[in-house]
Give the backbone structure.
Amino acid sequence: MPATHQKSRPFPWRCPACMMDEVVPSCVPYQIDIKHDGVLHAVSLPNLKVPRCRSCGELLFDDAADEQINVALRELLQLLSPEQIRAGRVQLGVDQQQLANDLGTRLETIARCEDGSHIQSKTLDNLLRVYFAVPGARAVLQGAASQIGVQPTNAG
Ligand SMILES: [Zn+2]
């Protein structure tokens, strides 16, 4: 695992903007435009928990703050959560590599969707929902995956 830049150091932290030891946990209304699938989405968090400098107002985004923003974006776009993707896959007894193969995507993409570090496209989200819910769709996709590189035959 990569080292995180914000360990559980005791507050207050030193503010990188004004150099005062005034950064403490806070809860602020926050809005940000995030590009997803090539479109900007206005994400609004009425109560973002984020370390903030009491002196100059600088916000110090840590992993927890980033995750809150990701959760809000997924809710706004009505995308499956990492937990829902993992649960759906485990329930079917397929591993990440198999799921990636069946959907025609990469193992890394599935792994990152499940650990929350990547937010899937709406297209992939729809595909995941159909895959999890419809056995016939899985059969079709698995058939398509097994035919990669195979020439279609005329056998009727
Ligand atoms: Zn400051």
